[in-house]
Amino acid sequence: MLYRNMPACNLLLSGAIHFSGCMATQTIRMLKLLGLQCISVGTFFRHQRLYIGWMLDAAAKERECEDLKLWRPAIINHLYWTAASTPDGDSDVMEDKWQSMVNHVQDIHEHGTPAFPCCAHPPLEGEARDKEWLEPGTTAAIKLERVTLRTALVKDVRKLSPQHQTYSLEAFNSLILHFAPKHTGFSFLGMYSRLLMAALHFNHNSSREVARTSDGEVRYAVRYPRFCKGGWVVRPIKEKPSYAYAAALMESLSEGYSRSPETLRESSAEIAKDEAVGLYLARHSQFNTGN
Ligand SMILES: [Zn+2]
User: Fold this and answer.
1) Alpha helix (H) ranges present in 85-138?
2) Residue 93 CA to ligand 1 centre (angstroms)
3) Which residue has the higher pLDDT, 289 or 191?
4) What is the 124 CA–ligand 1 centroid distance (Å)?
5) Which of 220, 209, 204, 210 is nearest to 172 (CA)?
6) How far is the CA of 157 from the centre of ligand 1 (A)?
7) What's the pLDDT tens digit per position in 78-97?
C-alpha cells in the first residue's frame, strides 16, 4: 500500500525498529539474512530524520554547532534530573528547570524564573569552571534554545513522571543501556530519541505488580549486584514489562503521516545527483581556467 508515494509498511517497519529500541543495522541485517524484503539502513535513517526529530538532526549537523555535541550527555542527564529532582511532579518547576539548562550551558546560572530562579549546583570554581561554555548569541546557543525549548518538547517535559524515578536511578540507567548500548555511537538525534524511548518505556512499566506463582506466592530472585562485591541480595520479581505503548506509537505514526504537511515528507537538503555533479564540474573547470 502506498501512502503518498511512500510504502506504508516501510514507514511502519522504521517505526517498529525505533519504538522497540532495536539497533537498525542489526535488525535489517537479520531480516535480510532471513530472505525477507525490507528497507535499507539508509531508508530507516531517512525516516528517523524526517519523522522523529528532523530539527535536532539539522541542529547537530549545522556549521558552528559542533560544540553542542560536547553538551549532549549533560543535556540528557538534565532531562532525567529535571523529573527526578521534582518529587511532587510540579509541571511549572519542571519546565523552569528544563529551560534553565539553556542558560547554564552559556555560563549563566541565574534564571529569573519564579519556580527555579537559579541553578541548584554550588558556585562553580576552579576545575568546575573549566567547561566548553557556549557563547551567548552564537549559532550553537541559538540553535540549542530553538531545539530544546520547542513547545511540543516542553509540554512533554511538564508531564515527566517523577515518582518512580527517584528510587530507580539504577534501573533507569540500565534501561538506557538497552535502548542506547554503549558499544555503539549514535548521532545526537539518535541518542536523544532513544533516551526519550527509554523514558517512555520506564514510565510505562515502573508501576508493575510483583509476579506471583500459581499459588499466589510472591516470586523472589537472588541477585549479585556489582556494588555488593560478591554479596547477594533478594529482590521480588516483577511482572514482565509491557511494550503496549509501542502499538499506540505505531498507530499514531501511521495516522500522523497521512495528515502530515507536504514539507514533512520531503528533505529540502537533498539535491538531484545530475544537478550536483553539474555544479561540481562547473566549479572545477573555473578553477582550472584560473590557473
Ligand atoms: Zn548552572
Assistant:
1) 91-104
2) 16
3) 191
4) 8
5) 204
6) 19
7) 877 787 788 787 889 989 99
Spatial distance between the Cα atoms of 235 and 219, rounded to a whole number of angstroms: 9
Complex ipTM value: 0.98
CA 86 to ligand 1 centroid distance, Å: 17
Report whether 189 contacts 56 (CB < 8 A): yes
CA of 169 to the centre of ligand 1 (A): 22
Q: How far is the CA of 101 from the centre of ligand 1 (A)?
A: 7
**What is the per-residue pLDDT across 212-225, written as a single tens digit (0 to 9) for each?**
888 888 888 887 76
CA angle 229, 231, 235 (to 5 degrees): 120
Instruction: Answer for the pair 13, 39: CB distance below 8 angstroms, yes or no.
Output: yes
**What's the CA-to-centroid distance between 262 and ligand 1, angstroms?**
40
Confidence of residue 107 (pLDDT cuts 50, 70, 90): very high
Confidence of residue 3 (pLDDT cuts 50, 70, 90): low
**Which of helix, strand or coil describes residue 223?**
strand
Measured in Å, residue 120 CA sits from the centre of ligand 1 at: 7
